[in-house]
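Running log. JK asked me to keep both predictions on one page so they can be read side by side. First protein, sequence followed by its tokens:
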Amino acid sequence: MKKTVTILSLLMVTSLMAQKFQGKAIYKTSMKMNFKMGGDRANAMSDDQKAKMNANLAKQFQKTFVLTFDKVSSIYKEKKSLNAPVVRPKGGNMTFQVMGGGGGNDVYYKNIKENRFVNKTEIMGKLFLIKDKLTKYDWKLTSETKNIGVHTCYKATYTRQEDRTNMSVENGEVTQKTEKVDVVTTAWYTPSIAVSNGPRGYNGLPGLILELREGNETIICSEIVMNPKDKITIEEPTKGKVVSQEKYRKIMDKKSKDMMEKFKSRRGSKGRNVEIMIGG
């Protein structure tokens, strides 16, 4: 009888500890910009103006996200902030604006236990719910370490191949070139926070991802609060048209092609006002 009571007590303690395991991680994103322009418009801009343009564009990618998580589920979304300004370089008549799929309204829900995710996003005023299985990353673990804040982190890498399309404008003519490239993702995770989670859809490591680098983009954790006083509520988003990841990719591909055709149709306009849209 005493043994039975002891086992029940241990189960109750384990259950309570699992309920209390909650956390909030703040991530900041940044991106290196290397925007190049040919033709007369480029010649009309000084090196200083080009550098300022790249800096202003980079600022539009500097955002703050919050990951709220427990042992099995999480929500990742952007902290509300003012919209990024349109970049208008002095001495020129071109407009640059960063466009996103859903901006600050995106909500990315993950359920690690059930191996699935739900991403609420918006395209041109229409809400979508992307529902699919979590990506299985073929992480290569290493013994390399570094400290991020008070946490010892280990390095892991993942390599994938993707089709990358580059667009160039030369003397009013728009050209596209698509090539296959290897994209290396480098993650730094800490086993001291034993949850297989991280920013966006990233998962599958034996600890929380505190830093992630992919191409020109960097995502780094600036603050972690474990078991906050106020209980965290993680709710799966439910509003929007349900689509799979593949279906959503096709929708975005069509949108990108439509935007490209719209851009090409403007290249001969008398006002020579060109909009460059970066992103989905």
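And the second, directly underneath as requested:
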Amino acid sequence: MRKDEKHYRILVVEDNPGDFVIVEDLLTEQILLPDITHATNYKSAFDLLKTGNTFDVILLDLSLPDKSGEQLVSEMLEIASWGCPVIILTGYTDIDFSIKSVSAGISDYLIKDDLNAPMLYKSIIYAIERKKNISQLEISEKKYSDLFNLSFQCMWLYDPQTFKFIKVNKATTALYGYSEAEFLTMTMMDIMPAEDIAKAVEDLQSGNIKNRAYKNSTKHRKKNGEIIEVEISSTEISINDKLYKSVIAIDITEKNQYENKIIRAIIKTQEDERYEIGGELHDNVCQIIAACQFSLGMLQNAVSKEKIHLLDQCKEQVKMALIEIRNLSHRLAPAFFDNSNLEDAFVSLFNTFNVSEQAEIFLDVDESVKKYPPSMEVQLNLYRIMQEQLRNILKYAKANVIKVIVFIHNQKLKLEITDNGIGFNKDAAINGIGLANMKRRTELFSGKFEIITSPGNGCSILVSIPLSASN
């Protein structure tokens, strides 16, 4: 039989010389040159370990002259925790005590009368390898703990069933303003703005069911009440056979504000160009066409009766072109560019689309909006949202009733556009350019954009902008 040639340092704590000889023989049957140290009592073993001697494994008799039983096991495990597994060798069969010992941290519990060389060797190898794995796991956990606690990014664990925080790092407490102890009494809902809680629960539950990995942008509320925008990355993690969610949160408030400033500047430039083009169409092209219309009128008596119908057709076509260009110029340059108000701008928009020819339209602008009008920039974006949705309704909805309401509620400026048309599948259309543009324009002012629709049930577009962002 080939013996194990590896070098093993083994401490045998045994007061019976005969038993020690037996253990020594069993070890040498399987291991070529075992390095065996013998201690006859607890104190000798303690001194050996305390003075820096290291061993790969300790074989411990349960009955020593100076210590025995549970007390011996407990104290030996304490000093052996410095890096060495402990295997009990005893002449007593006590199932309860063996279970208790293994639970306490003993690697194995062997009965001397049943012992043989392969059994002892296998127990030693398993104990050493298990200890290595545990040590590696502890190192890994230490690295993870350091990474978690010292990370500059906000990180936390939460229970996906109760949404309770399980662990948070220092970056999280620094950003949100709550202490670690406070966080551990809270749930994810406690850092959500009140109006977002229902949607947040829906999103989190959907993420739990559909995806193990989850990424989303949302808003959170700090302890001082400040609302911040965060990008959330979440994934499942198993700890002690229980699944938790590990979260990394990045504060993107400043980044979004900067991007919004750039987008708003781009949109303003586009609107200025539209207004210039609209003005040119209205003031120059329309004047040219109007002059052409006048000249055609002067030809009335110079055209023969046989050709007069052609002149009338030409005059009618010029008239239609003039109306179309005026409508186009009004859509490019909304009325409130000329110091009008949102209600007038909407009425003008309805007229340029000839909405009344296809549907009955109801417009209700609350007195509070008229008295405290939002900034021209906000009005212009509401106008563009209205324009985009009108185009959608007239092209696709087959509606005969359109209702538009503008009002102020809970410190928010709200626009609701509702039609009784055929509706559509929201999930299939949500990524459309038109809807995306309306959503983007709303979010430029920290607002919320919502679509309520389904096939056969019409459509409602809901826009909500905080008053603080609309002035």
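Observation for JK regarding the second prediction: The first helix runs from residue 17 to 30.
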